Amino acid sequence: MEAYKEICRAIDSYREKTISLSHEVHDHPETKFREHFACDLLTGAVRELGLQVETGVGGLATSFRSTFGNPGPTIAILAEYDALPNGHSCGHNLIAGAALAAATGLASMRQKLPGQIALIGTPAEEGGGGKIILLEHGGFDGVDVAMMAHPADCEYSAVPVLAMQHLRLTFHGRAAHAAAAPWRGVNALSAVLQTFQAVDAARLHFRDLARVHGIITNGGQAVNIVPELAQCEFSARAITARHADEISARIRRCADAAAAATGASVEHETICGYKNMVINHTLAQLYERHSEELGTTTREAPPGTPTGSTDMGDISHAMPAIHPMFQVSNPGEGTCHEDIFVQHSDSERAYAAMIRVAKAMALSAYELLANPETLAAAKAEFATAIK
Ligand SMILES: [Zn+2]
Questions:
Q1: pTM (2 d.p.)
Q2: So what's the pLDDT on residue 304?
Q3: 346 pLDDT more than 90
Q4: Integer distance in angstroms from the first to the last C-alpha of the chain?
């Protein structure tokens, strides 16, 4: 089909530019809500394509949206570009590159597009829930289908992403001299430690694939003072949002019990929560078909495949969506959030995969616009799945 060739040609001719932009994002890691360099770089590139771009969408300083094409349905391609404290260990520079390249391919024929493309820059996937904020504040208005692709050590058209609740627990005790008058103190750190022990005892009763993991973010103020303030955070994940909520409630009860035991008081706070991913098989199969044409076989991940969480889960509850994983490292040689994945995310192999995935997304998006039956099938499946 001529349109497909034209899209792929445009992506190929923009290849070096996309790779250099993705590399620059990689070189300037910025954590959630601070992605100013990446946002400026990407929106600059979008403007250079002759496209309009709006920044500060949904009140988020580092978000953007560029919508182009002609009246008709709207397919969104999402760019993430936030890093973790250990750098681009989740490869979001590649997500940004793939989205930008896909948009470039589609923009090359924007006069003839049978609908609209929205390239949406979504900040703070790592713990900030940027997509949820955008969704709630109009950033996804008018969008019929959303897609993005994430690097990993595997190749899947769809993965069963876990629902997640991120909790912060703050314990308040009473300071006292730890040697001269410890009986006058209430030890907030003891409450944190007892919470961890109680949560570990509760693990046995969680359903399969549940994940609970925590860190202590404040363990006291000085070794010779009974800690009057201590804080920890937990992530509770499960295959359904309801089970993640149940686990989160259990963690809160553990904290309440630890507070009662130590005499401290506790405040619970939900930092963010992500929903599980509603897999849209129609979209997954569409993406699989275009990947196959480009020489890569990809399938839905089998049930039980280890996975994480993403704010794309919330998008998948609001509209048909896909979040394929593309392979940039070998199994066992490092995957997302490991230090080594910082290197994997800036490799020739990764950039080649990024360009391929950009084409598969762009062709899928084009087909959704050009073929109303495919879009209708994706929407009908979504309507049934979300009931
Ligand atoms: Zn990620």
A1: 0.89
A2: 81
A3: yes
A4: 37
Burial 140-149 (b: 16+ CB within 10 A, else e): beebbbbbbb
Ligand 1 centroid to residue 332 C-alpha, Å: 18
Please tell me the distance between residue 197's alpha carbon and the centre of ligand 1 in angstroms. Answer: 29
Name 1's Cβ contacts closer than 8 Å, sequence gap at least 6. none
Q: Is 338 exposed, middle or buried (0-12, 13-18, 19+ CB in 10 A)?
A: middle
Using alpha carbons, select from 193, 262, 273 the residue that is nearest to residue 231. Answer: 193
Tell me the residue ranges of DSSP E strands in 186-296.
211-218, 229-238, 265-274
- Asked if 159 and 323 touch (Cβ cutoff 8 Å), the reply is yes
- Residue-wise burial string across 183-192, b where 16 or more C-beta atoms lie within 10 A, e elsewhere: eebbbbbbbb
Tell me, in angstroms, the distance from the centre of ligand 1 to residue 81's CA: 9
The enclosing H or E element of 167 equals: strand 163-172
> What does the alpha-carbon distance between residue 250 and residue 268 come to, in Å, rounded to a whole number?
12
Q: Ligand 1 centre from 341 Cα, in Å?
A: 11
pLDDT above 90 for 277: yes
User: Would you say 294 and 360 are in contact if contact means Cβ atoms under 8 Å apart?
Assistant: yes
Helix pair 348-370, 372-386: axis angle to 10 deg: 100
User: Token digits for 217?
Assistant: 């973010």
| CA–centroid distance, residue 84 to ligand 1 (Å) | 9
- Partner residues linked to 216 by β-bridges: 232
The residues near 148 (Cβ < 8 Å, ≥ 6 apart) are 77, 78, 79, 80, 95, 98, 99, 312, 322, 323, 361
Span from the CA of 317 to the centroid of ligand 1 (angstroms): 19
Q: Is the pLDDT of residue 209 over 90?
A: no
- Arithmetic mean of pLDDT over the chain: 96
Q: Which residues, 6 or more positions from 211, have their beta carbon under 8 angstroms from its beta carbon?
A: 162, 235, 236, 237, 238
Task: Determine the residue type at 298.
Answer: T
What integer pLDDT is reported at residue 272 of this predicted model? 86
- DSSP result, 301-355: PPTT------THHHHHTTS-EE--EEE-S-TTS--TTSHHHHHHTTSHHHHHHHH
DSSP annotation of 275 reads P
Q: What is the pLDDT of residue 103?
A: 98
Quick check: 141 pLDDT over 90?
yes
Across 62-88, average pLDDT: 97
Q: Identify residue 299 by its one-letter amino acid code.
A: R
